[in-house]
Design brief:
binds iron/sulfur cluster; 6-stranded parallel β-sheet; Rossmann fold; alpha/beta; 21 strands
């Protein structure tokens, strides 16, 4: 049956059609839609499969892995930087193997559209010694989920699927097999201490040898089932293009358009590769060019003086694929001559560049404003974290961003390295529960002195408002109680769109900091303006406009507050775009030195 599916929907449906029993994930672009769609398809088909949003990727991975060693078919979903968090568990699980089946879906983000790094999960699979599939389209993602599940079961290994953003978020008419609802596994955990509880050195050494044997068998499986059947179509002359994932489409388009005499061989499973078999194929060609995104994962597994790729610097070393980049590589490798005719239009140059910004009416904006107003820039360091509030960068309210939870550990570090400055860390509720508790315990235990502001909107807002533990179970999981359980008082403020009050609250933290010998911690109870059910009723009721007579075009509101509706009109006066304005009223206080923001009826 044919269905229009987004890549992440195709993955979710592939999981359903593979009879997956358990799925566990942590949201992160571009992977976030997989788990939500899995729940949707499961409910639609009245299936009993288990699905959960985990507190972080490592927890999610371990929940799914326990299912897989109990004989279940399971899946853990995450984005590529989440894989870093789960990697400790992955590296060990790769030695031990499993009994049921487990697919690890790690979605990559070449081009850094929504990530702090561009890393290539295929290289991580190589590092962890597990097979990896690299789909080029949603259809392939659907097919590879099912194939990956089977491979995982047959070889008792975790299998990775790594779709890139252009696969996860692309839409395609896909062929799906609706009849294929595999019945969930019945099995359960069977005690086998030498396997599941293997300890170093002897136990893990033995498993390491098994892992090497498994990889050799997987290389041959890759050759027999995926590569060899495609070799019959190769002409075997001049140039061979080895492709993987989305690069394949760009290469095919360029080769066809330019009528270049070249063969294309797509490697669906870029690791582990049957090196000798592939290198034997190279004898029929003058040049072998490897098109892969983002790291030289394939290239590192092969050797030949005829190879051209990222290691030889004939292909781009950063950023996602485009047809331009394929053409560039064909020029650099001497396959074609450089001509202006083959430069595709650069649409990006025609568009105005705008940095991402927080939504109109977002409480984070007020908190960042208040922090920079109270803790002056010259005497402060602002550490922050991963989430919507990261966009406080626009307000010059953030100095550092590293990774999940680092706002707190780095505040610890700065409190030692720069004791004359006040460090103010900001972190969201989901990030705090993901990776913030351990650094807070460290800071309290080591008596580090800084201010920590936890911005609690009780949702994972940036990735689509997935539920957080507090929202699901407010009676048991409360950030204030967690902080106090760690041993320090937790100041609390319920956000209101009154900047003066928010500034006063931050001033109270400044006072507390003066005599503090440990972190000063506060939780600010906010909301997400997109979370319609939880937005207070005053949002949408306080219309504001600028009194043109009072506006002196000083730019203070734009520079320090950055609410998206603010712009200069043709007369050179500030104006509020009513179409963008959330009518929250926050800007009525403090931000304008001349008091030009007024309620609409007062103007
Ligand atoms: S802060 Fe006030 S005076 Fe300055 S540009 Fe904005 S509205 Fe005009
Ligand atoms: S009322 Fe002011 S702060 Fe609120 S969305 Fe409109 S411009 Fe922004």
């Amino acid at each position: 049956m044919k269905q229009i599916l987004m890549g992440n929907e195709a993955i979710a449906l592939g999981l359903i059609h593979s009879g997956v029993d358990m799925v566990s994930g942590y949201p992160g672009t571009p992977s976030s839609e997989i788990l939500g769609n899995f729940q949707k398809f499961r409910d639609k088909n009245s299936l009993e499969a288990y699905a959960q949003w985990s507190t972080n990727e490592k927890v999610g991975f371990e929940v799914a892995y326990a299912g897989a060693i109990s004989g279940k078919r399971t899946c853990a979903t995450m984005k590529q930087v989440g894989l870093n968090v789960a990697s400790d568990a992955l590296m060990s699980a790769s030695y031990i193997g499993l009994k049921g089946a487990m697919l690890l879906v790690s979605c990559d983000d070449p081009g850094f559209y929504s990530s702090q790094t561009e890393q290539d999960s295929r290289s991580f699979a190589k590092f962890a010694k597990i097979p990896v599939f690299d789909p080029a389209t949603p259809q392939e993602a659907y097919d590879m989920v099912k194939l990956g599940m089977k491979l995982s079961h047959d070889f008792e290994t975790i299998v990775m699927l790594r779709p890139v953003m252009r696969v996860s978020h692309a839409r395609e008419i896909c062929d799906v097999d609706e009849s294929l609802h595999v019945k969930a596994n019945e099995g359960g955990f069977e005690r086998n201490i030498p396997r599941w509880g293997a300890v170093p050195p002897a136990g893990r050494f033995r498993q390491g040898l098994e892992q090497i044997e498994r990889l050799e068998a997987l290389k041959m499986w890759n050759w027999d089932h995926l590569i060899k059947p495609k070799t019959h179509a190769l002409k075997g002359e001049n140039i061979l293009c080895l492709t993987s994932g989305t690069g394949d489409g760009y290469v095919k388009e360029a080769i066809e358009e330019l009528e270049i005499n070249a063969d294309i061989l797509k490697l669906d499973m870029p690791y582990p590769l049957p090196k000798e078999k592939l290198e034997a194929l190279f004898e029929n060609y003058n040049k072998i060019i490897i098109f892969e995104e983002s790291y030289p994962c394939i290239e590192e597994q092969l050797s030949s003086p005829k190879l051209y790729g990222k290691l030889t610097k004939h292909l781009h070393l950063i950023d996602e694929f485009s047809k331009d980049k394929v053409l560039d590589a064909l020029v650099k490798t001497g396959v074609m001559k450089a001509t202006s005719a083959y430069k595709s239009e650069k649409y990006t140059e025609e568009l105005p560049k705008r940095p991402p910004n927080m939504c109109p009416g977002c409480p984070h904006r007020d908190v960042h404003f208040a922090i920079t107003k109270v803790f002056k820039k010259k005497k402060s360091i602002y550490t922050s974290d991963i989430g919507c509030y990261t966009l406080g960068l626009n307000q010059a309210a953030i100095d550092t961003i590293l990774c999940m939870g680092a706002s707190i550990s780095m505040a610890s570090g700065f409190s030692i390295s720069d004791p004359d400055k006040t460090v103010i860390a900001t972190i969201g509720d989901s990030t705090f529960l993901h990776s913030g508790v351990a650094p807070l315990i460290n800071a309290i235990y080591q008596n580090h002195r800084f201010v920590l502001v936890i911005l609690d909107n009780s949702t994972t807002a940036m990735t689509g408002r997935q539920t957080t533990p507090e929202r699901s179970n407010p009676a048991q999981i409360d950030i204030k109680r967690i902080v106090e359980g760690c041993g320090v008082h937790c100041h609390e403020y319920v956000y209101e769109p009154h900047l003066e009050r928010t500034v006063d609250f931050i001033k109270s933290l400044q006072e507390a900091y003066k005599n503090a010998t440990a972190p000063v911690v506060a939780v600010i109870r906010e909301f997400c303006v997109l979370d319609k059910e939880n937005v207070p009723s005053y949002v949408g009721s306080i219309a504001v406009e600028i009194d043109a007579d009072k506006c002196v075009a000083c730019d203070a509101c734009l520079t320090n507050y950055k609410c998206p509706p603010l712009h200069y009109n043709e007369a050179g006066k500030m104006e509020i775009d009513p179409f963008l304005c959330a009518e929250c009223g926050s800007c009525l206080e403090v931000i304008c030195p001349t008091g030009a923001f007024v309620k609409k009826e007062e103007a």
